[in-house]
Amino acid sequence: MFTSNAFLVPGERTVLVDAGANYDVVAAVREHVETLDAVVLTHTHDDHVANVPALRDAFDAETWGFDADHEHVDHAIADGDRLTVGDHAYEALHTPGHKDDHLVFRSPAAGVAFVGDLVFANGSFGRTDLAEGDSRALVESIERLLDALDEADDVLYTGHGPAITDPLAGVEASLRAARFNA
């Protein structure tokens, strides 16, 4: 079964970044915390949101994402909005190309960004052959992420596969590959 990475961030505001699909997310979350304040979505492809109903039922958790008209999004997050994830403030960057509602969440104070399916380890990048995919928009979004990064960024948590532990070099590699394929 296909699923995405999901990241539980405990703290002042315990948040699950992306809900995943096809596994018992409620049991996985309960192994670590008793309550869940919110689910924050990088985008609404099924592999990232299918478990949202189970999380709503179990934790009465509200979901946050770019498109409040989507059935799995309770509250909209606009480009530039700030939200608390765990103990840190994160800025939302609207990064379409893989999907129109794609967001990246970045916290310089935490040294972390959740990049969804925008970029992946080893110079890979999000698909653009699905509905709402746009290779030129994806390149522009990767450029935007690269412009936002600095030496304070330690790790980028991706929607699939391993984290990017050298953010600047990793995003530069993804950008080169995406430009080549645009």
UniProtKB/TrEMBL annotation:
Pfam entry (one): Lactamase_B
Cofactor annotation: Zn(2+)
CDD domains for this protein: metallo-hydrolase-like_MBL-fold
Gene3D superfamilies: Ribonuclease Z/Hydroxyacylglutathione hydrolase-like
GO molecular function, one term: metal ion binding
Residue ranges of every copy of the Metallo-beta-lactamase domain listed in the record: 3-160
Record InterPro entries: MBL_Glyoxalase_II, Metallo-B-lactamas, RibonucZ/Hydroxyglut_hydro
UniProt keyword Metal-binding, yes or no: yes
UniProt keyword Hydrolase, yes or no: yes
Keywords noted in UniProt: Hydrolase, Metal-binding, Zinc
The name this protein goes by in its record: Flavoprotein
Organism per entry: Halarchaeum grantii
